[in-house]
Structures are given as structure tokens and as C-alpha cells.
Specification:
This protein has a domain at 3-115 and 261-292 and 334-460: Rossmann fold (3-Layer(aba) Sandwich). The protein has 17 helices and ten strands. The protein has helices at residues 24-29, 32-41, 45-48, 70-84, 99-106, 118-131, 137-148, 162-165, 168-182, 187-204, 225-250, 296-306, 326-330, 339-349, 351-360, 366-390, 412-422; strands at residues 3-6, 12-15, 88-92, 110-115, 261-264, 278-283, 394-405, 408-410, 426-433, 449-460. The protein binds S-adenosylmethionine.
């Protein structure tokens, strides 16, 4: 359904995409704050759909951990566009699988995405190639035929603990898939095929699918040769369906979007050129250090060791793929070096952080508190860097969760607000969303829990 939105100056913005939210009163009113309040009062139904059903077209190419709800981010972005126009540069400094990127590109906007995880950037590159016109039908047929006629038993890769995560028949099959994909000459097409390959590895190797951590399945649960072949084929056809669905939706667009800028790097070390007359930072940062919350690096480790380096985004030097912990160690809060000093520094910026540490110290779990302190400071440093690049005028939309650590709730949303205010940002509102069955550990082996999800909206200038 196309919809037209009326600007206050009576120019008409044509929105070539589906909005899940259609509150005429607020739409005419055009005020961001009122729109956000309306979201809180009456949560749009699409925001409450969870799992695969919420992930139409490109959003469902791969199951990346902690993906955002696309319709929610799209609706909030629309509410901002109604206020500031469409000469907008959208930035996601923790881009993950590119939920925000796809929503920004769908609206024809400039986009920059940053992530420390090369698999995340590869997924974004694949999605962005579809917008650029990538057509995959013949490549999929070629790959399937190549796999059928490949009887070689040569195993193509070797890496640390490879044989723990793959049975001999799995090594042979994945080697055939890999050779078949490398037979496709076009790199953009290969990027999409590697995403299918990564999704197949995740569900068919010896690691459990019930956790993002690398965790060996029981011996009786090895995935058979037939099941792997079926899964790969099904995933390839699903890629074609999703690309067709996306293209059908985008067919109404008058022009294609500018090519997104995708940077594989630590956000705290990255700057980018600002574009457009207004910037919108939309992101969902990690909720805590990767090892305690979601180990994005472990989740990606197996696939990254199968995909040739030449087809991967350049890995940040300090990270490497040497072992499953490398990416997680380089991520926010990954290192506990100087944790005490970092804690003191974040306490000086956020009174809520200070109160948290004061009450959590009663639980006497110093190790956990050092992790929270190190993470919060790293998060502050990353946002500070983004703010330096983004400048004003801008809007910020940060979706985060509150979890408990050391038996105390970490009010991450409030700490985020205080960080933004310390840069001179003006808080507008928090939009709350009930967590349905988010694919995220509600409780992990250290007893840290993620309980709520809240989206902060703020502005600069
Ligand atoms: C919550 S996920 C983002 C998910 C994304 N919103 C989506 O819908 O797929 C957070 C991301 O932050 C990334 N990350 C963690 N530390 C980082 C750092 N220092 N610099 C850049 N990215 C980082 C992780 O690799 C992960 O992909």
C-alpha cells in the first residue's frame, strides 16, 4: 500500500513502501513527539509480530542474533522524515544484519552502516547488491548443478578445532558447496550465496541451534547428508523468493537508492563523511559485553572460516579470526583492561550508572561489575565518536534492553539517555515495546537476564 504524507508546508512526500502504522490524526498533526506518544498508547500490531513472520523479503535472509523489528524502525524513521524531509543520511553504527539499512534504502535514503563483525557487513553487502539490481536465478541453478556433479571428497578448509564442529561427511558437502559458489564469477552474486551458505552452516554443523554460543550437539543429533543438501537447496530457493518479493515492492520506487556505505570496523575508531541536510542515527547496540550477553563473534566464527578472505570485508587488524573469541574480545566491553578506571569515568557522566554500581556492589560480584563498567565506557566512547561524525542537526533512535547483572537491573536505556544528554542532545521520548519471544537468551549461564526493550528518541540542533 502506497501512502502520501502531507508536510506542514503542504509539499507532498510520496512514500513508496508499506507503513504498518496509519493513525490519520497524528499523521496530519505531524509532530514527532505526538506520533511517538501514539505508538506508546496503541502499539502497532506489526511491531508485536515476532520471528520469521515479522521478517519479510530481505529481512529474513539470515537469522542474525538480536535483529530489530523492521516495521517498528521503519515507522519511527517515517515519523522523523515527516518532520525533517527526505534529504536525510541514516547511520547505523552497530548495523548487524542491516535491518535499518534495508528500511533506509527502501526509502531511497543515504546510508552508512558500521560493524566490527565481517559476517554482518557481508550480509549487508549482499542485501545492498539486490537493491543495485543483482539477479540471482541463473547463479542458483549453476550452483545446484555444480553440487550435483561434484563427487570430490577434498576438504577445502582447515581451522582451529574444525573437526569438533563438522563431521567428515559435512566437511565434504560444505566443500562442494564452497567450490560451487566459487564457480560464480560475479562477486556480488557470491555475496548473496555466501549468506545462504552461512545460514546452512549454522543449522547443519555440529553446533547447537538453540544458542548463539558454539556449543556441541549431542552425538545422536548429527545432521545427515540428505538433510544438509535439502537445507542448502531450500535456502537457495528462499533467497530467490525473497529477492523477488523485495524487487516487487521496490518496483514502485521512482529511483533506486544511493549505494550504502558499509564499514567493517570498530565504531569507536571510525569516522565517515556526513551527507544530506539532516542525519538520523538509528541503531540497536549490544546490551552488554558479547561474552555475557550475545556472542556475535562465536555465532559467526564457523561461516567466516569457510568463506574465502578475498570475498569477506577486510577484517579489522586487531580482530582477526584466529579463534572463536577474537571478535567478541574486540567488541564493546570485550576487554577488562582498566575496567575500574572505565567504571569511574562512566559514573562521572551518568548518575544512573553511579546509582547502579552503588546498589549492585552490595551483591559483591566484582567480576560482573567490572564487565558492566568496561562495557558502558566503551559504549560511551563509541557513541561519542558517532556524535563527532554526525553533528547537528540530527535525530537519534536507540533501541536497547535492560538486563540484570550482579542481581541488579542495569538501566541501560536511562544510561543511554544520560550519555546522549552529556553530548548536548535533547531527549524526546522513549517508545516501549513488549518483548514477545525474542530470539535472545532470556537467561544465560551466568544468570544475566534481558527483560525489556525500549527505544530512545532524541535530537541535536
Ligand atoms: C544488536 S546487534 C545489531 C543487530 C541489528 N540491529 C540487526 O537488526 O541485525 C549489535 C551489533 O553490534 C556489533 N558490535 C559490537 N561491538 C562493536 C563495535 N565496537 N563496533 C562496531 N560494531 C560492534 C556486533 O557485531 C553486532 O552486530
Amino acid at each position: 500500500m502506497d501512502s502520501d504524507a502531507q508536510f506542514e508546508d503542504n509539499t507532498v512526500m510520496t512514500l513508496n513502501y508499506n507503513t504498518s502504522w496509519n493513525n490519520e490524526t497524528v499523521l496530519q498533526q505531524g509532530h514527532l513527539e505526538a506520533t511517538l506518544a501514539a505508538f506508546n498508547q496503541d502499539t502497532p500490531q506489526n511491531w508485536l509480530v515476532s520471528g520469521e513472520k515479522s521478517r519479510h523479503d530481505l529481512h529474513g535472509l539470515i537469522r542474525y542474533p538480536a535483529m530489530m523489528v523492521p516495521s517498528m524502525q521503519g515507522d519511527i524513521l517515517d515519523a522523523i522524515l515527516r518532520e525533517v524531509g527526505t534529504d536525510v543520511h541514516v547511520i547505523d553504527p552497530f548495523v548487524g544484519s542491516g535491518t535499518v539499512m534495508t528500511e533506509a534504502v527502501r526509502r531511497g535514503l543515504e546510508f552508512t552502516g558500521i560493524d566490527i563483525n565481517p559476517l554482518a557487513i557481508l550480509i549487508c553487502q549482499a542485501k545492498s547488491s539486490v537493491e543495485a539490481g543483482n539477479c540471482l536465478d541463473s547463479a542458483v541453478v549453476q550452483v545446484l548443478e555444480a553440487v550435483k556433479s561434484d563427487w570430490s571428497e577434498v576438504v577445502e578448509v582447515d581451522f582451529h578445532k574444525r573437526d569438533k564442529w563438522f563431521e567428515p561427511h559435512q566437511l565434504i558437502l560444505f566443500s562442494r558447496f564452497r567450490r560451487a559458489i566459487l564457480g560464480i564469477s560475479d562477486r556480488a552474486k557470491r555475496s548473496c550465496l555466501w549468506v545462504v551458505f552461512a545460514e546452512t552452516i549454522r543449522s547443519c554443523s555440529r553446533t547447537r541451534t538453540s544458542t548463539y554460543k558454539l556449543h556441541k550437539r549431542p552425538d545422536g543429533e548429527v545432521v545427515s547428508e540428505k538433510a544438509i543438501l535439502d537445507t542448502f537447496e531450500r535456502n537457495l530457493y528462499s533467497l530467490l523468493d525473497r529477492v523477488a518479493e523485495y524487487k516487487a515492492d521496490r518496483a514502485f520506487a521512482l529511483q533506486s537508492a544511493p549505494t550504502p556505505e558499509l564499514i567493517c570496523s570498530a565504531t569507536e575508531n571510525t569516522c565517515f563523511r556526513r551527507r544530506g541536510s539532516h542525519r538520523v542515527v538509528i541503531t540497536s547496540p549490544p546490551y552488554g559485553d558479547n561474552r555475557t550477553t550475545i556472542p556475535y563473534g562465536q555465532f559467526s566464527y564457523l561461516a567466516l572460516n569457510w568463506i574465502p578472505c578475498s570475498d569477506l570485508p577486510k577484517v579489522p587488524v586487531s580482530t582477526g579470526l584466529a579463534n572463536p573469541a577474537a571478535i567478541d574480545f574486540a567488541s564493546l566491553g570485550g576487554s577488562l583492561k582498566d575496567a575500574e578506571q572505565k567504571t569511574a569515568k562512566i559514573e562521572a557522566i551518568s548518575t544512573t550508572a553511579k546509582e547502579f554500581f552503588a546498589s549492585a556492589r552490595v551483591a559483591k560480584n566484582e567480576e560482573k561489575l567490572r564487565k558492566v563498567g568496561a562495557f558502558l565506557w566503551d559504549y560511551y566512547v563509541a557513541l561519542k565518536k558517532v556524535n563527532e561524525c554526525v553533528g547537528a542537526p540530527s535525530h537519534w533512535v536507540i533501541t536497547s534492553g535492560n538486563r540484570t547483572s550482579a542481581e541488579t537491573l542495569v538501566p541501560f536505556d536511562q544510561i543511554g539517555r544520560e550519555i546522549i544528554e552529556s553530548f548536548g542532545g535533547k531527549w524526546i521520548k522513549n517508545v516501549e515495546r513488549r518483548l514477545p519471544v525474542k530470539r535472545m537468551p532470556s537467561k544465560n549461564n551466568r544468570g544475566d537476564m534481558i527483560t525489556t526493550e525500549s527505544t530512545l528518541v532524541a535530537s541535536f540542533g
